[in-house]
Structure formats: C-alpha cells, structure tokens
Amino acid sequence: MSRHYDVAAIRRQFPVTERMLYLDSAHQTPLATSVRDALVRFYQEGNETAGPKAVWLDRVERVRARVANLLGAQPSEIAFTKNTSEGMNIAANALPLAAGDNVLLVEGDHPNNAYAFLNLRRKGVEVRFVPLAGETARAEMFTPHIDARTRAISLSHVTFHAGHRFDIASIGALCTQKGLYFVIDAMQSTGVVPLDARASGASLIGSGCHKGLLVPQGLGILYCRQDLDELQPAYMAMSSLAKPPGDYIARADNMTLKPGAGRFEIGNFNLPDIHALDASLALIESVGVPAIEAHLYDLGDRLIERIDDLGIRLVGPRARAERSPHIYVLDLPAQEWLAYLTSREVRVSPERDGIRVSFGLFNLAEDVDRFVRILAERGSLPARANAAA
Ligand SMILES: Cc1ncc(COP(=O)(O)O)c(C=O)c1O
C-alpha cells in the first residue's frame, strides 16, 4: 500500500516484478506493458502501412508538448536527442566559451557530463572540479571557485553513485546573479523528482529517457531556455533551420536557426522511442511526479530504518532534502554481495562504494521488507557492515 497512489495498479504494468525483485531503476527501467504496446503499435504501422510519416511527425510534436509540460517549459524549448551525453555535448559546444574561460563541475559527478566539458580543454577552456562539501552541492560550495573568467556551472540534479540531490535552486540563483550559464544533467531525476526548468534557473537541461522516463535506451530530451539566442549548434541539418529550403537545395543565405531548442535537432528522430515516450508519460501523468517522489521517499525511509537495524551503513545522504527519493547505496562489498543477491533473484547495481538499490514507481514497501530479509538471511554480515554497527 502507498499513501500516495495505487501502486498495485501501476505494478501490474510491470510483469518483471513477478519474476524478480527489481531494485535497479537507476540503471534502466523495466518495460511497462503499455509502453511495449505503444512500440508494437508503431512497428505494426510501419509493417502494415509504412507510416505515414506525416502522422508520426505530428505525434512527435504532441510528445514534445508532453515533455515540455513535464518540465514546466514551452514546447519550442524542448529538443529530442539520443541520450544525456549528447545533451551535455550539445550544451558544452553551444556555450560561447573562449580560451581562458573556465567551467565549474562537481568532483566525482557523472563522467558523461565531465567529458563533454573536458573535451573543451583543446580549445583552452579550463575545467575546475569543485569538491563536494558535506552531503549536497549548494551555491556556497561554488562561490570561492568563481572568478572573472568563470562562464558556467554544470552538474547532475541527482547523483548516480550515492543519490545526492543537489540544491539546484540555490545554484541556479547564483548563476543568475553572476551571469553564468547553468547546465543540468537530469538523467537520474526526470520522472522521479519534480523539475521545473524555469524555476531552476537552468540554461540547458539534458536527460536520457531510459530510467525514470521508462522507455528503452536511445532517446534523450534537451531543454534550452528560449531567450538564449547566442547559443550555436556544433552540428547543423535542415531540421536546425527556421526556414529549411522547400526545394531541398542548400544555400548559404538561408541559415537562420530555429529559435529555442529546435536548432539542436539534426535529421530524423528516434520515432519508435518517441512513441514509447508518449505512452510512458501518460503512465507517469496518471500518477504525477510529486506522488512518485513522495512514495519513493517513503520506501527510502523504510529501507534506511531497516538497514540501520542490521548495522549496514548508508553511503550517501540520509536527510530527505539532501537525498534523492530512489537511490540508496549500502556499504557492502559489492562483488560478493552482487553474486549473492543475483542468486536470490534480486536485481541491484554494484556501485563505487557498495551495493546500489534504486526504486521505481512500481516498487512496494513489501519489496523493501523482502530485500532486507534476503540481506539478513545471508547470515554473516561482512566486516564493513559490522564495523558500522
Ligand atoms: C547522472 C547520469 N548522467 C548520465 C548517464 C548516462 O548517460 P547517457 O544517457 O548518455 O548514456 C547516467 C547513467 O546512465 C547518469 O546516472
């Protein structure tokens, strides 16, 4: 049972839950039946009627509006990409950065965010890794590292490796105050933590869709704030242009870019996944992200209480304000526990500092209890866990 929505009804959409204890949604989502059905319908249309493509493209715009609604943005502020890395690379290469400028990142944050910016070192852009102070990243942490040549801050909303929830509101306000661009990797938060693009102060937000947005790998979304006309795409195609040539003959005098995020789209879309996203967003909207977040926080509270009883240390933050609702890393030797948990039909991920448990909207309190029972049934807890007791 949940205080927030009918989880049992949602769970019926995820038949994988009957086969295993799936606690790995921060790695990839299992496929919901309604999302699989949307994919099958798309393939059937292709198979039986070869499109028509115009209908598919109309649906792309409908899904774009749905994504915009999820992020509190305008449809023209949303582009479809391939994944988070593409979003971060689009952002890094679009910012007007010159040799000698610097960008601030968080030490140990996701490498797909970091490499997009580290690649700019070849143009003389400096990347500064700011160490985490305490259990979250807040504006104060960055202030001492900002100088006259600082142009941007880029970070995850939620970290994959320990479930930190960074204080994007204070960092966004700092960026606005100092005139810095603000780039957010929202891969671990979309669909799980409410994210209002405007309120966050973000310039650009990138996310893949294969975790909290519940579709198979290969589709990403990118938010780009409408007024940032100075951002230039590194790649260009007809689809990037405000007025693509009707005769399909390229001319150098017709290269005005689309306003907003559309300038970053190149070529054909991942149409199957966009159809899948239509269905997954319908599922997410039927519950609402705030209710998903609240339910997952409840599961997290329960997990923390139970592992405290077992003497297993939680690696990341404990306070709700500083942690994500769904990612919890247990201080257990990863490889040995992974083998045991796999043998008990439990799916989790090995992480830098232990075993990562991550919840999806279909997980129940009973899943937490079952997981903790399985942990306890192993008998001897390893030295690291005993040391924390
Ligand atoms: C914070 C974060 N960023 C990015 C990624 C992955 O990047 P991509 O979508 O490019 O595969 C992940 C995990 O897969 C992640 O946790």
Features:
seven-stranded mixed sheet, Aspartate Aminotransferase, domain 1, alpha/beta, 389 residues, Aspartate Aminotransferase, domain 2, 38% helix, three-stranded antiparallel sheet, 2 domains, globular, 13 helices, binds pyridoxal-5'-phosphate
SSE diagram, text form:
Blueprint: H1 7-11, E1 21-22, H2 33-49, H3 53-71, E2 78-81, H4 84-94, E3 102-106, H5 111-118, E4 126-130, H6 139-142, E5 150-156, H7 168-178, E6 181-185, H8 197-200, E7 204-208, E8 220-224, H9 271-287, H10 289-310, E9 327-330, H11 334-343, E10 346-347, E11 349-351, E12 354-358, H12 365-377, H13 383-388
Parallel strand pairs: 1-10, 3-4, 3-5, 5-6, 6-7
Antiparallel strand pairs: 2-8, 7-8, 9-12, 11-12
Helix pairs in contact: 2-9, 3-9, 4-5, 10-12
Residues 83-85, 110, 112, 156, 160, 185, 187-188, 208 line the site of pyridoxal-5'-phosphate.
